[in-house]
Write a structure and sequence with these properties.
heterotrimer; A alpha+beta (321); B alpha/beta (812); C alpha+beta (199); A: 321 residues; alpha+beta; Alpha-Beta Plaits; 2 domains; 4-stranded mixed β-sheet; 3-stranded antiparallel β-sheet; 25% helix; C: 199 residues; Phosphorylase Kinase, domain 1; 4 domains; 3-stranded mixed β-sheet; 5 helices; 8 strands
Chain lengths: 321, 812, 199
């Protein structure tokens, strides 16, 4: 078996196999200072989501639920095609639908973006996490949650520049896309990428995915999308889930995809416990529920939240630790 | 489909109109995205709504539902006016050159021979001139004023871009852009594919919608070629198979017909089924009808079907009407003329129009039997679900049996995909509880019924008592036994017609394919078009070699395609008169001077000289038909008629309502609405998250699209004070539903005949059982009439009104 | 750079209010959690594969069903997962949102398990044995056929049709079921025979 799978298009094995992702392959481990360096470097993998090929069918959502054995609730229609209405602890990925009139052509464009964990090279969730070993990063780029170690504090949500993790009301643990680490560990690609009918989601080495993206961008440019490009944001050192966007000059039109995502200053530059104190204050409305490990509907961490947190922590004795 | 799903990768231009392939057939649509990504193909979508298919299109244009014939006739006119015609193909492979009889004409929206009282035509004048030699007269120069080509030119003259804009609401500039993109495909080296579904069939002029595109494809030379074709995307996994095997009122397996009362005996029946060629040297393959029919009768009644008794001709019922289709059956049921009804995997109270009438009809049955793996609303039509099913169980005297069947995962057999591939599958799970295979249930019903007739006698028991039923276990025929019957076998030693000493097929052996079937009672075959699927080589439907020599998308060793494992129908038309491919880079087959061969099974006799034998071998002409003679009920050329419920008057003749030959039951006339009371143009459709009324039982799909909604434009929402996600009531002359409102930019008001037309979109996946929230479907609202030729209900164009309302069950 | 949090750090932050309280409340008794198995065990290991076809639309995607237990060996088999067949030329392993959730059709809580009858005027279904159900159905059919069969039309032509009972055939049954159904229905003279081709 190759160290990392090259495609998601294969039939999974049914014979017992050794997992190819173990603690020896970790490059980061939350709240752990003494992680030994990995013995080997796995080939970095990536999922490439070509928004221009996506038909919004939600096969990725369906395949994700079935593979991960989650139990999404039957919600209600609130006037949109996006269902459920947000990511949940039982829906790790979500098609977000935006009706956008292109001011240059006056044509309607229905922008459909598969939302979910971006598997940042520089993962804000992991850096924000106070629970040792609850969030890990493998040398192939996968950022995974280890639920046994999760304390449900919700700091990963605040540390995430993409607002992805969700805390379960059932077991008070954080959930998000694993990039199907259990499949990758036996040489298979993620369930969503295998299912995707139009191959809008493809999977392989990060290098291959970047090459494939180039081909797609050339095709899109030939169809008049002059700003087509690859979304692999430098603010988080690139991601292991990337997008091909027809309008890469304005990612925000795709259901608020951040134009320049970066890890909160509180997470990135603050040290030790003050970081967690700061995090606790970010989005103070949620602080009460943090106590119970419950975050109802997390909002994106805004600049104001960060500033607010800074002020509060200053008052309470910045510099401790 | 004339072609296959995998063949779509070979196209240059995809036109999705009358369908929404990305949404209803996502994995088939993959081949569109492949063609786009790898060949630079373009995708055009024409639809009242900006659909998920439109979201990945290169060009989208809106159209008012029910006006596709006007649009496509306009494209045909554009191609003719701009000399964008594949001339060699059109002249030689269509009936463009055939001269029509004197007397045929079209005036004020009607063809010659119309009888208003019968809502039908005398079609005598819709035919070719016949010469003294008995063949049709042709003028290959296309100069004769009555040749099909000149008649067609005249017929489409009214469909100008201005007319199209006025009727369809498609802006002229968008229409002309599409015309120019399509017209490019008249080049022999460019092909276009048409992908359509119920967006074309579910209209009162549904069959003609499809014909108009077929005609366009013919004059562009796009039928029979790689990446071309007329590709009907069937809605269900085996509706192709069910139709092939003839499970319809008027069908015998393999597209033969049940006799009518006017055909009292076999001889009379066969006189209209001679299918003599209309041009010299043509194949006219239906000349073999007798072989297929006799082999079918032998499959049904074995030794009892003999020459002496006209092959048990009288064992089959005869029809006094064109068909006892579902609309007619429910009309009769509602009138108290039907006592028993079986629904095998079918949910009429959500599937058929005018739900109120359907419920009323079912309530008049003595007994109803449902066979299904899942709960259905139909099996519980008598159960009160408040607003969602407002009935009084006490007043309903129908005895209902709900029989649990296995599902796909627990059974074996073949399903036929849209591309006519018969794919065998195997069971992998144990059935729940006491669920049984449908074959077991049918075996039980039959053997018990036969037993009663043996014991008690009764009405004409002969066809029941003599039905061939020699299965190892009569109470549950085995799928392989049934599949072998579909293929057919020799009943006695079959000898070579030219050498009686040579045995071609020994008695009891499977025939190789339908070319070995005979009309003398020496062969049996249940469904001739399938013959070859399970011959002495074994179960060809179970083959799994996915090699694709030449990378053509044919996959000849993957399962079996009917007929004869042929993947692209009419593939002889992919070559010119010398038998060379129009486009060498897209070769399917080729004539090497002595025979045809290539990547697919040739759709022509292997030694048929290309100059002599036309490619459309099933037609008596050997050519395809731009003019259909008397084969269509509503005319030999397509005509734009408004839907029965329309916001716009018929532009050709304001006195004509709907298709003038559609059957309308008297009891439904009063239930047709008009635009003064119901101003909005409604349409119905599927969503990608659901499959009909099945997936609402699945928690995953229920989570992905949980609740019934309707879609309206921002403009209509504003006019009606409807907020996104708010409740609306939608009602027609026949019923009323409540739904959540999705307010969208994807539906825009159209300007038709100078005034705005608002479209209301109604998806169809909700009912009162399952895992989703309870809801309704469009069939509560839509009219009880359909296509003039097939009686497919007009689900895609009807009138409604809409208002803001409160949640179901809540006090307004 | 400090990536973790030390016990010492927590003590020092005692004055930091709500956040520290919450951290403490969340049980950092043992700060360094045990190294646990990171990725989920691969759930298809030791399952039985069976090839099938998606029963929804007409693309007819190839699927592989993974079961605990093997029906071919006569065992009770429980399907635990369904995935697209990568060897299939049409779908190449992909599935749509319906196909990807086929397992939930197989195991839907509303799958029917037993024959039921709803008696005239009743407001409920009742369990019935197959034998009872089939005998009753066949009795009703025969009585109706014998009473309403039309052997000849008004003109005296033999027509042998039965119009007062109809049969709607399924769209997702196999060709083989279709043929068995055709034989049974037509041999009885039923003309009110239709399928889902139109809807």
């Amino acid at each position: 078996m190759m160290d990392s799978p090259r495609t998601a298009i294969s039939n999974p094995p049914v014979q017992p196999m050794e997992s190819n992702l173990t603690e020896r392959d970790l490059v980061r481990r939350s709240a752990t200072s003494s992680l030994p360096p990995p013995e080997r470097q796995l080939t970095p993998v990536a999922k490439l989501i070509d928004v221009s090929k996506c038909i919004g069918c939600k096969a990725c959502q369906s395949a994700c639920v079935e593979w991960n054995d989650t139990d999404p609730a039957v919600g209600e229609n609130v006037g949109y095609y996006t269902n459920p209405n947000d990511l949940t602890p039982d829906m790790f990925t979500l098609m977000r639908f935006t009706e956008w009139v292109n001011p240059e052509t006056d044509n309607l464009e229905w922008l459909i973006r598969k939302d979910g964990c971006m598997h940042c090279a520089d993962p804000g969730c992991l850096k924000a996490c106070p629970a040792p070993g609850a969030i890990v990063q493998y040398s192939n780029g996968i950022v995974d949650f280890v639920h046994e170690n999760c304390i449900g504090c919700g700091y990963c949500v605040k540390g995430c520049p993409f607002n992805i993790p969700r805390i379960s009301k059932v077991d008070h643990k954080a959930y998000k896309c694993t990039l199907c680490s259990d499949r990758v560990a036996v040489g298979q690609g993620p369930a969503c990428a295998k299912a995707c009918p139009t191959k809008a989601i493809v999977f392989g080495t990060k290098e291959d995915m970047k090459k494939h993206a180039e081909e797609r961008i050339t095709d899109l440019k030939s169809r008049g999308y002059k700003n087509a490009g690859l979304y692999d944001p430098p603010g988080v050192n690139g991601t292991h889930v990337m997008y091909v966007l027809h309008h890469n000059d304005k990612p925000h039109i795709y259901a608020d995809l951040p134009d320049n995502p970066h890890i909160s200053r509180v997470v990135e530059t603050w040290k030790g416990v003050t970081k967690y104190v700061g995090l606790a204050f970010m989005g103070l409305a949620a602080a009460g529920s943090v106590l119970h490990g419950v975050i109802g509907k997390p909002n994106r961490v805004s600049e104001e939240d960060e500033e607010h947190a800074e002020k509060l922590v200053e008052r309470n004795g910045r510099g401790a630790g | 489909m004339t072609n296959s799903w995998t063949d779509i990768k070979n196209t240059d231009l995809v036109v999705v109109m009358g369908g929404n392939a990305a949404e209803a057939h996502p994995c088939g649509f993959k081949w569109v995205t492949e063609a786009k990504a790898n060949r630079g193909a373009r995708l055009i979508v024409v639809d009242p709504r900006y659909t998920r298919t439109a979201s990945v299109s290169d060009f989208y244009a809106p159209i008012r539902q029910g006006t596709d014939i006007a649009f496509l006739s306009g494209v045909i006119k554009y191609c003719i006016d701009n000399d964008k015609v594949q001339w060699e193909y059109t002249k030689n492979f269509t009936n463009a050159a055939y001269i029509l009889k004197e007397g045929f004409a079209f005036k004020d929206g009607l063809f010659t021979g119309y009888d208003e009282a019968k809502r039908d035509y005398d079609k005598a004048s819709w035919d070719y001139e016949t010469g003294d030699d008995g063949f049709a007269v042709v003028d290959m120069s296309l100069q004769h004023p009555r040749c099909v080509w000149n008649m067609l030119k005249q017929h489409v003259a009214i469909y100008t871009p201005e007319f199209v804009e006025r009727v369809c609401g498609t802006p002229k500039d968008k229409f002309l852009k599409i015309c120019s993109m399509i017209a490019e495909c008249s080049s022999p080296t460019k092909t276009m594919t048409s992908m359509y579904a119920l967006g074309w069939t579910q209209h009162s002029s549904g069959s003609q919608n499809i014909r108009t595109m077929a005609m366009l494809q013919l004059i562009l030379g796009n039928i029979g070629v790689r990446g071309g074709g007329m590709n009907a995307l069937r809605g269900h996994s085996n509706i192709q198979g069910l139709t092939d095997v003839g499970l319809m009122s008027n069908l015998i397996p393999g597209y033969m017909n049940i006799a009518t009362d006017k055909e009292p005996d076999f001889k009379t029946y066969m006189t209209t089924r001679q299918f003599k060629p209309l041009r010299p040297g043509q194949t006219s393959y239906w000349q073999n009808y007798g072989k297929f029919f006799v082999s079918f009768q032998k499959a049904m009644w074995g030794d009892t079907a003999r020459k002496e008794n006209d092959w048990a001709y009288d064992y089959l019922p005869k029809l006094d009407v064109p068909a006892y289709d579902v609309l007619r059956m429910f009309e009769m049921m509602n009138a108290g003329q039907v006592n028993g009804y079986f629904c095998q995997g079918f949910n009429p109270i959500l599937s058929f129009p005018n739900r109120g009438k359907i419920t009323s009809a079912l309530s008049k049955l003595k007994f109803l039997v449902t066979m299904d793996p899942l709960e259905t609303e139909t099996s519980r039509f008598w159960e009160n679900h408040g607003e969602y099913n407002q009935v009084d169980p006490k007043s309903i005297q129908t005895e209902v049996f709900q029989l649990p069947t296995t599902c796909f995962a627990e059974e074996e057999g073949a399903l036929v995909n849209s591309g006519r591939w018969l794919q065998w599958h195997w069971p992998g799970g144990s059935p729940p509880g006491e669920a049984k295979h449908d074959t077991w249930i049918m075996g039980q019903i039959f053997t018990r019924m036969r037993e009663l007739y043996r014991k008690e006698g009764g009405a004409f028991p002969d066809p029941i008592l003599n039905l061939s039923w020699d299965y190892k276990e009569p109470e549950e025929p085995d799928p392989e036994e049934l599949a072998r019957e579909l293929n057919g076998r020799a009943l006695t030693d079959l000898t070579d017609p030219t050498d009686a000493t040579k045995i071609v097929v020994p008695a009891g052996k499977q025939v190789l394919n339908f070319s070995q079937l005979r009309d003398d009672g020496t062969t049996m075959c249940a469904c001739w078009v399938y013959s070859g699927c399970f011959n002495e080589a074994g179960n060809n439907m179970a083959r799994r070699d996915n090699n694709d020599p030449g990378d053509t998308g044919a996959y000849l060793n993957w399962t079996f395609a009917w007929p004869l494992n042929r993947r692209t129908l009419y593939n002889r038309a992919s070559c010119d008169l010398n038998g060379k491919p129009w486009d060498p880079s897209r070769k399917i087959i080729e004539w090497d001077g002595a025979k045809w061969s290539g990547f697919d099974v040739p759709d022509i006799a292997p030694n048929a000289k290309p100059q002599d034998v036309g490619p459309f071998i099933m037609n008596q002409e050997g050519a395809s038909r731009l003019f259909t003679r008397g084969l269509m009920r509503d005319g030999p050329f397509p005509v734009h008629y408004e839907p029965f419920e329309t916001p716009v008057a018929n532009p050709l003749n304001p006195k004509i309502r709907g298709n003038p030959t559609t059957r309308v039951f008297q009891s439904d006339v009063a239930q047709l609405g008009t635009s003064d009371e119901f101003p909005y143009a409604a349409t119905s459709y599927r969503l990608t998250e659901h499959f009909h009324f099945w997936t609402k039982h699945n928690r995953v799909n229920a989570a992905l699209q949980p609740e019934f909604f309707v879609e309206i434009s921002e403009e209509l929402a504003k006019e009606k004070g409807v907020a996104p996600g708010g409740w609306v009531r939608v009602w027609s002359k026949r019923g009323s539903v409540k739904a959540k409102a999705v307010v969208t930019k994807r539906i825009r008001p159209l300007i038709c005949d100078g005034k705005p037309v608002h479209v209301v979109g109604i998806p169809l996946h909700w009912g009162f059982v399952g895992a989703t929230k309870k809801g309704w479907g469009p069939n509560s609202l839509s009219p009880f009439l359909g296509d003039a030729n097939t009686d497919t209900p007009e689900f895609k164009a009807f009138l409604v009104n809409i208002e803001s309302t409160s949640a179901p069950g809540a006090v307004a | 750079m400090t990536r973790g949090i030390s016990r010492r750090g927590f003590l020092k932050a005692a004055g930091a209010g709500v956040a520290v309280t919450s951290l403490g409340a969340m049980g950092f008794g043992e700060v360094e959690a045990a190294i646990v198995a990171h990725v989920r065990p691969f759930k298809l290991a030791t399952t039985v594969e069976t090839r099938n076809t998606c029963p929804y639309c007409s693309v007819a995607c190839g699927i592989i069903m993974y079961s605990k237990g093997d029906v071919r060996k006569g065992e009770q088999a429980d399907i635990i997962h369904i995935e697209g067949d990568a060897d299939h030329p049409t779908n190449r392993g992909t599935l749509c949102p319906k196909g990807a959730a086929l397992k939930d059709f197989v195991h839907a809580p509303t799958r029917l398990k037993y024959p039921m009858v709803r008696k005239p005027g009743s407001d409920k279904f009742e369990r019935v044995s197959w034998d009872e159900a089939l005998n009753r159905i066949v009795r009703l059919m025969k009585d109706d056929r014998d009473a309403n069969f039309i052997p000849k039309n008004a003109a005296g032509v033999t027509v042998n049709r039965w119009t007062s009972t109809g049969f709607l055939a399924a769209s997702a049954t196999t060709n083989e079921t279709a043929w068995a159904t055709y034989k049974v229905v037509r041999s009885m003279g039923i003309v009110g025979f239709d399928n889902q081709a139109r809807v």
